[in-house]
Write a structure and sequence with these properties.
Blueprint (H helix, E strand, L loop, with lengths): L1 H16 L11 E8 L5 H17 L3 E6 L12 E6 L1 H10 L6 E5 L6 E5 H10 L4 H18 L24 H14 L17 E2 L4
Parallel strand pairs: 1-2, 1-3, 3-5
Antiparallel strand pairs: 4-5, 4-6
The structure holds zinc ion.
């Protein structure tokens, strides 16, 4: 197990180091509204927020993180809603949608921009890997945001890996993934599109692969 963690960590560092963060003043802002039905606790949410902000910041995207119905800054509108489900809500959704026990979160395809996160499962998976719940939650939220906002698919390494395997090194977006997210956020923030593209995609719920 320890060997697997180390190999994954080395592979990911390279992709992050090669991408210089954009200047903060250039960065389009993604508004993330978090509704915490699970009462995750402020420590967990703060760590998750910091992790999401760090990952998107490296991709040149600023984050306006709001919890509950807190107001957004002027000129910023909600773009992504993340629902952190209580145990009862998660159980209902899992049952209704026949989600496997490995699934940690699920996102609606564009233009809904809405994700449902199963905090209990994320916390348990983090404990098994001896990582903090906040880090794990941030990782899952950043992953779902990339699916939702830019239709980014899974990649072998980094935060878009299909498997949930946290490492000591930062698991970020590749340069190409970061550019796609940045372009999509810019477009959503009032940019002008040259042409219309069909952005609808099919999403699979996310989970931990069988080992
Ligand atoms: Zn995924």
């Amino acid at each position: 197990m320890a060997g697997i963690l180390r190999v994954a960590a080395v592979a990911v560092v390279v992709s992050i180091g090669s991408h210089a963060p954009a200047l903060a003043t250039d960065s389009p802002t993604l508004a993330i509204r978090v509704i915490d039905y699970a009462h995750a606790g402020s420590g967990v949410l703060i760590e998750a927020q910091h992790h999401v902000t760090r990952l998107l910041g490296a991709a040149g995207v600023a984050v306006a993180w709001r919890e509950g119905d807190a107001a957004l800054p002027a000129n910023v509108t909600d773009q992504v809603t993340v629902l952190i489900l209580s145990d009862a809500m998660a159980a209902g959704k899992i049952r209704t949608e026949h989600l496997s026990p490995a699934v940690l979160a699920t996102a609606a395809p564009p233009p809904a921009h809405r994700a449902w996160v199963f905090l209990r499962r994320i916390t348990e998976a983090a404990e098994l890997q001896r990582r903090s719940a906040g880090l794990a939650l941030g990782h899952v939220i950043a992953h779902e945001i990339a699916h939702m906002v830019a239709g980014v698919e899974h990649s072998e390494n980094g935060v878009m890996a299909a498997s949930f395997q946290l490492t000591d090194n930062l698991q970020g977006f590749t340069r190409e993934q970061g550019e796609r997210i940045r372009a999509a956020v810019q477009l959503d923030s009032g940019g002008v599109a040259l042409d219309a593209r069909n952005r609808s995609r099919t999403f699979r719920p996310d989970g931990v692969p069988a080992r």
